[in-house]
Amino acid sequence: VQLQAFGGGLVQTGGSLRLSCGASGRAFSSYTMAWFRQAPGKEREFVAAIGWSGGTAYDEDSVKGRFTISRDNAKKTVYLQMDSLKPEDTAVYYCAATPTRWGISRSAVYDYWGQGTLVTVSS
């Protein structure tokens, strides 16, 4: 599976962005897809994940209620709609894929990663 993320950019506090991640390969619909992010000087952290059937999980503390993950299996694409953006959301956002349904907030379970797209939120 090859992943390519895009859609990042510069946005003001309170604004919105939608990230997209396109995938190659026939097994996309069976994979758990996720978004992680890494801010300068910090470790990569879990943002959200979506299972093959559409079940979702979010980092409760940082993005719950503001970000929405979705997928279109026909287009082999996963999305991250980000609303009410804050300066602390500034990071490089990565999409990732795994065949597993367990431990999906851990980066170690993901086998495939996109190249990352930079989101900058100005105050």
Overview of the structural elements:
The chain is mainly beta. It is 0% helix and 48% strand. It has no helices and 11 strands. It has strands at residues 3-6, 9-12, 17-23, 32-38, 45-50, 56-58, 67-72, 77-82, 91-98, 112-113, 117-122. The strands form 2 sheets. Strands 2, 4, 5, 6, 9, 10 and 11 form a 7-stranded mixed sheet that branches. Strands 1-3-8-7 form a 4-stranded antiparallel sheet, with no helix packed on it. A hairpin with a 4-residue loop joins β7 (67-72) and β8. It starts with a strand and ends with a strand. The model has no long low-confidence stretch (mean pLDDT 95).
Keywords:
four-stranded antiparallel β-sheet, 123 residues, 0% helix, 11 strands, seven-stranded mixed β-sheet
Give average pLDDT, whole number.
95
How many beta strands in the DSSP annotation?
Answer: 11
* Tertiary shape: globular
**What is the CA-atom radius of gyration, in angstroms?**
13 Å
Distance between the termini: 37 Å
Share of residues in strands: over 45%
- Characterize the biggest β-sheet: 7 strands, mixed
SS-based structural class? mainly beta
Count of runs of 4 or more consecutive helical residues: 0
Please provide the ordered H/E string of secondary-structure elements. Answer: EEEEEEEEEEE
Query: What is the share of helical residues?
Result: under 10%
Quaternary state of this entry equals: single chain
* Unreliable residue runs: none
